[in-house]
Protein: Acyl-coenzyme A thioesterase THEM4
Amino acid sequence: MIRSCFQAVRTFISHFPVTLCPDAVSHGALIKSTRLQCSGHRSARGLSMSLWPLSANPRDFSLPNASWSAEMQQVYDHYNALCEVKTKDSEEKGPWYKLPSYNRSLKHAAGGVYLSKIIQSKSRLFTRSNKEYGAAFEYVIFMNKQEKKCVCAFQSGHLLEGPPGHVHGGAIATMMDTVTGTLAGYLAGPVMTANLNINYRSPVPLGSVVLLHSALDRIEGKKIFVNGRVTSTDESKLHTEATALFISVNVGHVFGI
Ligand SMILES: CCCCCCCC(=O)SCCNC(=O)CCNC(=O)[C@H](O)C(C)(C)COP(=O)(O)OP(=O)(O)OC[C@H]1O[C@@H](n2cnc3c(N)ncnc32)[C@H](O)[C@@H]1OP(=O)(O)O
Structure:
């Protein structure tokens, strides 16, 4: 029991924190690539590199690729510039931090009790489960810890169609859950979504680039209240509004142990 708990925690720390608690990322290559991308290099919070059990070079899905439109690249460049270290005399860092994004989450989740080992080994983070560039969820999240908010540039791929020529509402909800949940997890550690309330105001054209904005409303004990909005990149058009409640959980709850 103790050993399986340890294994579960180790796997959780190694994979989930990338989105839920990026401060905890300790992988050397990740830190290195993060430094290259953005000045917001985070401390390892006491975790050692040996905790990383998988590939030495996991793919960061949130880096620019050939499928990105000029608009997507522009938004990325804008926020990435706000991350850069202003190196003159001081090592002043920008307020924004680009989160890396990987496609593995948990290998030893409670669902594994019911699922075959093949399914366990093939499990992937939903939003990063399609490796084809540009086919589904292309996105990058920038976090502003000082202001307790984040922004996500999201380019929808052809697999996300709902109404003809527009993005499926479930795909928008998925992104909303991801972005608001990432913020809640970044600020409060491991969390799960208890409630996600969405108002769809105007359809999102398939293939377009939109921004998802999320900000902390308040924290009450275990409860983290977060809001979210989807807008056009110039923020002139509102597509979606949301509120979300996340509950802080201990690692054992996530694993069902
Ligand atoms: C990759 C990065 C993306 C991250 C985002 C993606 C996250 C997800 O999608 S998670 C998957 C979807 N969510 C789930 O499966 C969660 C299923 N639900 C659960 O596991 C539990 O109900 C859980 C963890 C939410 C809460 O359980 P538990 O810790 O026992 O909380 P509990 O003690 O009952 O309630 C705590 C407080 O929250 C409140 N609360 C709990 N659920 C709700 C709810 N749905 N609505 C309103 N309030 C709620 C309770 O009333 C209580 O309030 P108070 O302290 O004032 O009395």
